[in-house]
Design a protein that fits this description.
There is one protein chain. Helix content is 33%, strand content 25%. By secondary structure, the chain is α/β, with parallel strands linked by helices. The chain has helices at 2-6, 10-24, 44-47, 61-71, 103-106, 111-120, 138-150, 180-187, and strands at 32-36, 53-58, 77-81, 94-99, 122-133, 167-168, 174-175, 192-199, 203-210. The chain has one domain (2-137, 179-210): Rossmann fold (3-Layer(aba) Sandwich). The strands form two sheets. The chain has a seven-stranded mixed β-sheet, with helices on both faces. It has a two-stranded antiparallel ribbon with strand order 6-7. The protein is built from eight helices and nine strands. The radius of gyration is 17 Å and the shape is globular. It starts with a helix and ends with a strand.
């Protein structure tokens, strides 16, 4: 997984850094933060500098083992193997829950269940942050996926099926995009306030502020 980020072109690295900075701006020093799909700890490493405590979950044991080696000396960071749609945490355990870099698509789970679990473990007044891609980032996103395909990290891109925010590879891999209308539809049932914000002309952030019951 790390290689995907190591070979990213400069504009993509700018997008990745901008996402992290946007999240860090939403965190206070007293916050307990949960990252869904933490991978090898790329984001957690930065968040741990800002928050009181950070928790990362991922379904991949190999990713978590890599993250443990990378983050082992960070005292306020904890890792668990867990599915984001079946979190083993009590209700209202976290001040901030994040699922960035289009995790709502990449996890390949029911997006409404993912949002429901994220809201469940967020404290009243807390924030849940999801991100997907901005339409303005389409060409840069395609370039990055082509670089990954050339490196053998994903399958060859099926250009006949790739269009309008959806990237399809010949090995069966498919990356979609969530827009404002889709997210509004997914969150209409939740007792929360929704804010949509574009960041760096590359990300769309969907911020859910959990209300008191």
């Amino acid at each position: 997984m790390q290689q995907c980020y190591d070979i990213a072109p400069p504009r993509v690295k700018q997008y990745l850094d901008a996402e992290i900075q946007h999240v860090m701006n939403k965190i206070s020093p007293s916050d307990v933060v949960l990252e869904l799909g933490c991978g090898y700890g790329r984001v957690l490493e930065k968040l741990a500098l800002r928050a009181k405590r950070v928790v990362g979950i991922d379904t991949s044991r190999s990713n978590l083992m890599f993250a443990k080696k990378r983050l082992g000396r960070i005292a306020n960071c904890y890792l668990f193997q867990m599915n984001a749609v079946a979190l083993g945490f009590l209700d209202r355990s976290f001040d901030v829950v994040i699922c960035i870099q289009n995790g709502i698509s990449a996890f390949k789970v029911n997006p409404q269940n993912l949002i429901r679990e994220s809201v469940r473990v967020a404290r009243a007044g807390g924030n849940v942050l999801f991100s997907s891609y901005s339409e303005k980032f389409w060409k840069d996103r395609l370039e990055w996926f082509q670089i990954q395909a050339d490196a053998g990290l994903i399958g060859e891109i099926d250009w006949s099926a790739t269009r309008e925010g959806v990237i399809v590879c010949r090995d069966g891999f498919k990356a979609t995009t969530f827009g404002p209308a889709e997210f509004l539809s997914l969150t209409s049932q939740f007792h929360a306030e929704l804010k949509i914000e574009e960041v760096d002309d590359s990300s769309l952030f969907f911020e859910i502020r959990v209300r008191n019951s």
